[in-house]
Design brief:
This protein is mainly beta. The protein has one helix spanning 26-29, and strands spanning 5-7, 10-12, 18-23, 34-39, 46-51, 57-59, 67-72, 77-82, 91-97, 112-116.
Length: 118
């Protein structure tokens, strides 16, 4: 069974930091670009950050300079370091493979809740 397991979320005050982790099965992780996504209440899931197999990265405009995506290929794990968190970052965060057709993926993990509030 394919499993994506996200962890590291929680409640944090504005300006705080969190580090998310995602353990992915090799069948998804190996040789794949990986992405972090998020879905806020009442909104569609959106792409937050992408890391290529070779390590190059891209970020959504709203998180540039605050979030950093990284990967550990030996552990099949992708990370998202989130700094200077804002209330609008509140969402359930998911990881998955990244392709241009990501919005049509049928399988997602359970996600990890990030709540930014004072």
């Amino acid at each position: 069974q394919v499993q994506l397991v996200e962890s590291g979320g929680g409640l944090v005050q504005p300006g705080g930091s969190l580090r998310l982790s995602c353990a992915a099965p090799a069948i998804i992780f190996s040789g794949s670009n990986m992405g972090w996504y998020r879905q806020a209440p009442g909104k569609q899931r959106e792409l937050v950050a992408v890391i290529a197999v070779g390590g190059s990265t891209n970020y959504a405009d709203g998180v540039k300079g605050r979030f950093t995506i990284s990967r550990d290929n030996a552990k099949n794990t992708v990370y998202l370091q989130m700094n200077s968190l804002r209330p609008e970052d509140t969402a359930v965060y998911y990881c998955n493979e990244y392709t241009p057709r990501w919005a049509k993926f049928a399988y997602w993990g359970q996600g990890t809740q990030v709540t930014v509030s004072s």
